Amino acid sequence: MTKRVLIVGGGLAGTIVANGLVRQVAEEIRSNEVSITMLGAEETHMYQPGLLYVPFGRIREKELFRDQRKVLDRRIPFHVDPATNIDIEKKEVTTASGKSFGYDYLVIATGSRIRPDNVPGMEEGAHWFYDLDGARKMRDALDAFEGGKIVVNVNAPHKCPVAPLEITFMLRDYFQGRGMLDKVEITYTYPIGRLHALEPVAMWTQPEFDKAGIKYETFFNTKSVDPKKKKIHSEEDVTLDYDMLVTIPPHSGAQVIEDSDLGAGGWVPTERETLFVEGKTDVFVVGDTTNIPISKAGSTAHFEADTIIDNLASLLTEGRFARKYDGKVFCFIETGLKDGTYVWFDYNTPPNPGPPSQMVHWFKLAYNRLYWLSARGLL
Questions:
Q1: For the whole model, what pTM was predicted?
Q2: Which region, left, alpha or beta, applies to residue 177 given φ > 0 means left and ψ of -120 to 50 means alpha?
Q3: What CATH superfamily classification does 116-250 receive?
Q4: CATH 3.50.50.60 fits 3-111+254-328, yes or no
Q5: 288-307 residue pLDDT tens
């Protein structure tokens, strides 16, 4: 009987799993011993980290998109039919069209979504770069900006943990390049008592912000935004005035996760080394969907996906588990428009950002071009 692998979600994590697995079990697919099917919500695949560059005109929008069927190996049936219910007891996934898909192994890769609607006034009063429409609006606002106070407001949880730092440094360089830095005041807010959740990154950031003339306000948990008065209020009773508000909106997981009662907030309880749903040995979780307290980033998704590929291939062909995920994460950090640094860490090794350099910035730009090889499981 054919062993069925069902992947729910067509973003980076699910795509890497699908493409990597199909190559490892190619013989079994040819002999009809294994099948791999993907359910997605969109015809196109978007390179989400590229959105960071849109507000500054540093990337063309068409570079962000590919046809998902061309990104996927041709041996993988792909259905643009998003899941509406995932029943891990019945081993069945129901889709928007009313179809049902059974499985022997399930990979949940449903990702995350921005929720500016969770903060009163944020949708109307803030700019962000986490979706294309928001990035376009922010680009237009920056083009029209003639000076004043910019607040970069960070909310939790959010994906790409270094993106708030990147956008802050990039804004400074952008206005310096326009010759108007003396007309701009940038203030960065963070919800805990330091500038980043990872303490070594926070310790690195503070002197970098001081050197760049960037102000900051910690213990700032956003309560509401007043678009008319251009004020942002915190739960700690701090109010900041702004002329332009750039926010990292709070995120939640996919609606289908909540509707299926698989995890509060759309985050699935996940065993941190096996990447199984807690209490299950036939359902993997990958990428932003997990509740593992590590960075929700593309590299996290990639390293988790590689682990799942090896384990699924081993389970399908040998009936055994292959290896554990060690928590590995690697993130480039743009420290402006011309230089950058990076961090890597795992469950046992803390991050240690190095001094920014132009070379690392160019490595980041090169990766922007190589992303599609990564999605295809070739990198």
A1: 0.95
A2: alpha
A3: FAD/NAD(P)-binding domain (3.50.50.60)
A4: yes
A5: 999 998 888 888 999 999 99
Task: Give the DSSP letter of residue 268.
Answer: B
Residue 148: phi, psi to the nearest 5? 130, -160
Residue given tokens 């960037």 in the structure block: 214
- Domain coordinates in residue numbering, the chain: 3-111+254-328, 116-250
Q: Over 92-152, what HEC string results?
A: EEEECCCCEEECCEEEECCCEEECHHHCCCHHHHCECCCCHHHHHHHHHHHHHCCCEEEEE
Q: Which residue has the tokens 């005109």?
A: 57
Return d(Cα 357, Cα 362) in angstroms, integer: 9
Which residue bears the tokens 């919800």?
191
CA distance 30 to 104: 18
- What are the distances in angstroms from CA 122 to CA 54, 139, 168, 186? 21, 18, 19, 18
Residue 297: strand, helix, or coil: coil
| Separation of alpha carbons 46 and 40, rounded Å | 12
- Which residue, 45, 44, 144, is CA-closest to 371? 45
What is the rounded distance in angstroms from the CA atom of residue 286 to the CA atom of residue 12?
10
Instruction: Name the E strands within 335-376.
Output: 340-345
Specify the 3-state DSSP secondary structure of 231.
strand
What would the pLDDT profile of 29-53 be if each residue is shown by its tens digit?
999 999 999 999 999 999 999 999 9
Helix axes 199-212, 163-177, angle to 10 degrees: 10
- Cα 356 to Cα 245: distance, rounded to the nearest angstrom: 27
Sheet order of strands, 105-108 included: 78-80, 34-40, 3-8, 105-108, 283-285
